[in-house]
Amino acid sequence: MAANPTNPTTPATSTNPIGPTNVPDIALADGNRIPQIGLGVLRIDDEAVSPVVESALEAGYRHIDGAAGYNNEGGVGRALAEAGCLTGENRKRLWVTTKLRDSEQGYDSALKAFDRQLGLLQLDYVDMYMIHWPTPFDWRSGDTWRAFVRLREEGRVKTLGVCNFLPEHLEKLHAQTGEYPAVNQIELHPTFQQREVVAFCEEHGIAVEAYSPMARGADLNAGNGVIERIATAHQVSAAQVILRWHIENGTIIIPKSVHAERQRENLDLFSFALDPDEHAAIDALDGPTRAGHDPLTFTYA
Ligand SMILES: NC(=O)c1ccc[n+]([C@@H]2O[C@H](COP(=O)([O-])OP(=O)(O)OC[C@H]3O[C@@H](n4cnc5c(N)ncnc54)[C@H](OP(=O)(O)O)[C@@H]3O)[C@@H](O)[C@H]2O)c1
Questions:
Q1: pTM confidence score
Q2: 139, 196, 213, 285: which sits with the fewest CB atoms below 10 Å from its CB?
Q3: Quick check: is 155 in a domain?
Q4: Is the CB of residue 292 less than 8 Å from the CB of residue 198?
Q5: Whose CA is nearest to atom 15 of ligand 1?
Q6: Could you confirm whether 70 is annotated as catalytic?
Q7: Sign, CA torsion 35/37/43/47
């Protein structure tokens, strides 16, 4: 009997490699729906990433967040092949994101890069293709976006997104192309909440996706034990408290873990809720310090 993806008692099987899930979808402005939790695969090498993706699929992840710059699209593709997720119903149940290298921005170069990336992933289409960094000192996002639109028209990309765009970059892209992206993936965690960027996105129908949702682990100890105290009160982990706070904010999250147990923990966010005081205590941890890079000056690859 085929497994039911919404029934939490049904395990992953060989015919249904994607385990049970109760993760909600977020509706995007372009009509597509993205699972609110995905697995990040940054800093996992090409060989190591395949078992990591396979264990995530078994745990019930339906969303993988990759990038050309992570140098592991081949390993992600091998995991999808091994799990039988390249075509058919299994493919339809999955959301696969990848991102264009900064060095390949531009109309022709983006089209060429996409062909290579799709080949590595062994897929016919990706659910989301993203501009990785705005590189405002070498702006090519307008031309790149025109290539992205062509890929969407060809049915090889479903949703177009960007990462690390500040409002000024979103406005410039809109002025040049007449479009806002459906998703902006930005660094966002309790100690760096980027409220102005989030407000601009909300105003313009752009879904916010939080990368480094736990500040790469640093926020687990944020606020002199505030997170830990809330975790103890709910008998959950500090990671679950932070990820639950994101979920309650309506943010898409892509926590990374190479450990199957942590992957399961990071999906298990729906059997408790923060009370308003607890949620507000995490809101109050906001600060000005990034864990990652500054989009005004950084280029990734
Ligand atoms: N668009 C961009 O420019 C951009 C930039 C950065 C990241 N990203 C994306 O966002 C994803 C996530 O961000 P991130 O990897 O920087 O940071 P993160 O998800 O905030 O944190 C990952 C770190 O936390 C640990 N961890 C995970 N789950 C845990 C748990 N339940 N308990 C304790 N520790 C836990 C992981 O260790 P273990 O792996 O050892 O479990 C890892 O060291 C990336 O993988 C990537 O897909 C995008």
A1: 0.95
A2: 196
A3: yes
A4: no
A5: 256
A6: yes
A7: negative
